[in-house]
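Peroxidase
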Amino acid sequence: MPLVTPLSPEHDLETKALAEFFNETLGFCPNSVLTMQRRPAISKAFINLNKAVMANEGRVTSALKRMIAWVSSNATGCRYCQAHAIRAAERYGAEQEQLDNIWEYRTHSAFSEAERAALDFSLAASQVPNAVDASIQKRLYEHWDEGEIVEMLGVISLFGYLNRWNDSMGTSIEEGAVESGEQYLGKHGWEKGKHG
């Protein structure tokens, strides 16, 4: 049972209008947003931040942003966000081979060196204590410019917020996210856990 019960999508009409963004990314409005709307200023600010972070400004694709989110969520152990991130990666055109082998991104041929550098950055930045070091920085600058690095850290930071929100809330996971989690992550032990 979640710590705080999500409200109806009709509770705050401004949040509802902004949340249409998630119908494209996930196919539904997340229960996390429905919980945030108990304080509509939080739900609206979150959705606007999400839109800004996920906008494409450079070569960091929508699919890669969602894989960065998955690595970050996997590092922190948030099963809710793991399933959401892999679902969004699928919906935003990640290659099937990448989706099937996300756990092996460091060695699998479906991932480029630039993608590996981005995903290793996500892993290092999501750890406590933070593990971003000169080696990570060097690899990033071999493939990405400073604006693209800012985009990546925006995703990592956004999911840091979401990982803490959803794991603390025990947010109930939506059926579509469960399907994606089981399909792509289940073979490595993914399950709903407290989000059931």
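thats it. The chain has two domains: 7-55, 60-191. The chain has a mean pLDDT of 97. bye
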